[in-house]
């Protein structure tokens, strides 16, 4: 039996290399500690190694290296004892499975329901809401929340940052099989040092705007040009927007759009990797 | 009609064909194998002697015929009852009884060799009587009463084929299908153990396989009056059970590692085709040359069909069916154990 306070999942030095015609490093190096009673999210783009990590924790995939303890036990000790205490919903691979008459939402809810069937202490959900309509996603979030409220622990993967932000107590952002950030959603967003993003758009802006001047503006923490869109991370938008407007005005171009929003996990990911979280997702 | 379209679509169809090993096998491999095997079984019969059993009590006839028989007719003595059964099973071509002056030749007219055997016997009888004696036309009897017809021979074979299909296809195909559709992984993540799963799956498939043989049997009895010896039911039941177990185990073995249905279908062709042809289901294995006998006798389907056939013809009570039953059960145990070791969820 595990003592209270013991970790639900304790993974150290995890590495997984698929050897085939071409060697694929699915997980390069990963430590993962999930406390009992929390909803922990693995957030990352496709191919980041989320499924591999989760399936190693589920005992479906042998790690190349690393120590894995689930509810205090290793898979080599007593697999059945672990299976009796966990619930698993696998990543949906084929939409045309046997229960193909069900809609995506029904299918996912059924998968999660079967995962919950054995009254598990620890629940693994691999992309539980991918491809679902907003309503089905929300009802699944409710299931996760009530499971947690009853004392359950959840490890889930997602590539939706809004889902990660509202559902997870703690998050690990992974990319190329490595941790690139870890913390509560609030901590991760706060790590950017500013709470808002201002976007200004004008046709032809890319060639004309003086990015150095934008960066030098008081209150701008970070700025970049995405096409003809100027994106600035700022502390207090009401103070900075007038200055930014003046800079754009100076180019003589008519302003096509102005938007401000709170910084999101997406911005955290872009900040850390220089890429967007969902880049290439459509392709796979 | 644009030439380029015709060319490209034609080339695509051709490539598609060549990339489908199954299609290539069924168009080239299968007919050639059929021709080879059936050729071995039914080919050079002219060159082979007709096998004739002289019934016990007509030993005089045997002694008279022996010196003039030559290479074309091979004569032996057997009891009337056994000779009749061997004729039905196809291991002899004719039964001779009566005397030199009033010979009776029994044949099975539905068999391709019957006529040749009859002609050869007639000429041997003529030689035995001497060229000068009056020719005596033997009385020809045919075994077309229930028990001696092809349908009577075929029915146990169909039951064997059915059990083979139920096991190899019913278990094998379903297991691989579950693996392909990720269903096995879903079971893997539950507390259900591997052995528990395999035992439960095999048992339920085994139960499903037990009914059809009796439906086939009942149909044969009702529609064609196929006789089943009164004491044979216990032996038939035991053989059906053992056969179902043997082929279910075999199916599981084939499916234990296969990751795609294509792989499985290749494996199934390799094991099922020889049994279709050489399992004694459609024609007697005695037709194969002596060198091939150890091979065709080693096929589980041969054990099953031969066992069922003897049982139905009344040659077998439960005890007499035990060698076939034991072989099938041993085969079931071996394949199931091996399958359990090799089995992979994913
Ligand atoms: N069975 C496998 N064989 C070879 N490569 C694999 C296998 N499973 C996953 N990969 C590769 O490992 C990498 C990580 O995959 P995965 O863990 O599925 O990522 P994610 O779930 O984050 O999308 C990918 O490059 C993927 O192609
Ligand atoms: Mg995945």
Describe this structure in words.
The complex is a heterodimer of chains A (284) and B (346). Chain A has 284 residues and is α/β, with parallel strands linked by helices. Chain A has helices spanning 50-57, 79-83, 104-116, 134-149, 161-167, 185-190, 205-208, 211-216, 237-250, 265-273; strands spanning 9-18, 24-34, 39-43, 65-70, 86-89, 122-126, 153-158, 170-175, 178-183, 196-201, 220-226, 229-234, 257-262. Chain A is elongated. Chain B has 346 residues and is of the alpha/beta class. Chain B has 13 helices and 5 strands. Chain B has helices at 3-18, 21-42, 59-69, 80-89, 114-129, 150-180, 183-188, 194-224, 233-255, 261-278, 293-297, 300-312, 322-342; strands spanning 50-55, 73-78, 94-98, 103-107, 139-142. In chain B, strands 2-1-3-4-5 form a 5-stranded mixed beta sheet. In chain B, helix 3 (59-69) links the parallel strand 1 (50-55) and strand 2 (73-78). The longest helix of chain B is centred in the middle third of the chain and has 31 residues, at 150-180. Chains A and B meet through loops of A and helix 7 of B. Bound molecules: adenosine-5'-diphosphate and magnesium ion. Residues 18, 20, 24, 26, 44, 46-52 of chain A line the site of adenosine-5'-diphosphate.
Mean pLDDT of chain B: 88
Q: With helices defined by DSSP (H or I, 4 residues minimum), what is the helix count of chain A?
A: 10
Q: Tally the beta strands of chain A.
A: 13
Could you estimate the helical fraction of the residues of chain B in percent? 55-70%
Main beta-sheet annotation of chain B? 5 strands, mixed
Following the backbone from N to C, one meets helices and strands of chain A in this order, namely: EEEHEHEHEHEHEEHEHHEEHEH
Protein chains sharing the most extensive interface: A-B, 15 and 11 residues
């Amino acid at each position: 039996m595990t003592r209270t306070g013991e970790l639900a999942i304790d993974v150290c030095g995890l590495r997984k290399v698929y050897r085939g015609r071409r060697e694929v490093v699915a997980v390069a190096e990963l430590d993962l500690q999930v406390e009992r009673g929390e909803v922990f999210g693995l957030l990352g783009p496709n191919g980041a190694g989320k499924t591999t990590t989760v399936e190693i924790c589920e005992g479906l995939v042998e790690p190349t290296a690393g120590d894995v303890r689930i509810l205090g036990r290793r898979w080599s000790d007593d697999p059945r004892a672990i299976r009796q205490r966990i619930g698993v919903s696998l990543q949906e691979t084929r939409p045309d499975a046997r229960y193909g008459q069900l809609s995506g939402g029904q299918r996912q809810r059924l998968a999660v329901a079967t995962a919950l069937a054995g009254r598990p202490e620890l629940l693994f959900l691999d992309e539980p809401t991918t491809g679902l309509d907003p309503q089905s996603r929300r009802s699944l979030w409710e299931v996760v929340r009530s499971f947690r409220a009853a004392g359950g622990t959840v490890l889930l993967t997602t590539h939706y940052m809004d889902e990660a932000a509202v559902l997870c107590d703690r998050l690990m952002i992974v990319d190329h099989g490595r941790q690139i950030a870890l913390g509560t959603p609030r901590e991760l967003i706060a790590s950017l040092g500013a709470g808002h993003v201002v976007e200004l758009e004008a046709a032809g802006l890319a060639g004309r705007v003086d990015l150095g001047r934008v960066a030098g503006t008081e209150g701008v923490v970070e700025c970049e040009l995405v096409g003809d869109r100027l994106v600035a991370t700022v502390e207090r938008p009401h103070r900075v927007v007038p200055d930014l407007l003046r800079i754009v005005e100076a180019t003589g171009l008519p302003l096509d759009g102005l938007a401000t929003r709170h910084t999101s996990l997406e911005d955290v990911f872009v900040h850390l990797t220089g890429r967007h979280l969902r880049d290439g997702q459509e392709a796979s | 009609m644009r030439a380029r379209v015709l060319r490209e679509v034609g080339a695509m169809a051709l490539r598609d064909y060549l990339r489908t090993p199954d299609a290539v096998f069924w168009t080239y491999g299968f007919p050639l194998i059929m021709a080879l095997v059936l050729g071995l079984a039914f080919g050079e019969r002219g060159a082979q002697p007709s096998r004739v059993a002289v019934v016990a009590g007509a030993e005089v006839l045997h002694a008279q015929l022996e010196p003039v028989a030559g290479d074309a007719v091979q004569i032996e003595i057997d009891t009337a009852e056994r000779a009749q059964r061997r004729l039905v099973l196809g291991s002899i071509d004719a039964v001779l009884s009566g005397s030199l002056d009033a010979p009776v030749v029994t044949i099975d007219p539905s068999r391709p060799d019957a006529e040749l055997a009859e002609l050869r016997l007639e000429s041997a009888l003529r030689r035995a009587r001497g060229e000068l004696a009056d020719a005596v036309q033997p009385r020809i009897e045919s075994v077309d009463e229930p028990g001696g017809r092809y349908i009577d021979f075929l029915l146990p074979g169909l039951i064997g084929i059915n059990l083979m299909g139920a096991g190899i296809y019913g278990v094998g195909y379903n297991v691989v299908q579950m693996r392909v559709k990720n269903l096995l992984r879903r079971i893997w993540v539950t507390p259900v153990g591997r052995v528990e799963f395999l035992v439960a799956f095999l048992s339920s498939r085994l139960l499903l396989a037990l009914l059809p043989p009796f439906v086939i049997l009942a149909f044969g009895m009702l529609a064609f009056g196929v006789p089943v010896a009164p004491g044979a039911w216990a032996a038939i039941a035991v053989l059906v059970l053992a056969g179902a177990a043997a082929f279910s185990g075999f199916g599981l073995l084939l499916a234990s590692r296969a990751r795609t249905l294509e792989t499985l279908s290749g494996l199934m062709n390799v094991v099922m085709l020889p049994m279709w042809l050489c399992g004694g289901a459609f024609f007697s294995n005695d037709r194969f040359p002596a060198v091939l006998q150890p091979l065709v006798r080693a096929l589980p389907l041969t054990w099953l069909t031969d066992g069922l056939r003897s049982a139905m013809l009344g040659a077998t009570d439960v005890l007499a069916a035990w060698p076939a039953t034991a072989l099938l059960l041993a085969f079931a145990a071996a394949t199931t154990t091996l399958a359990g070791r090799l089995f992979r969820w994913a």
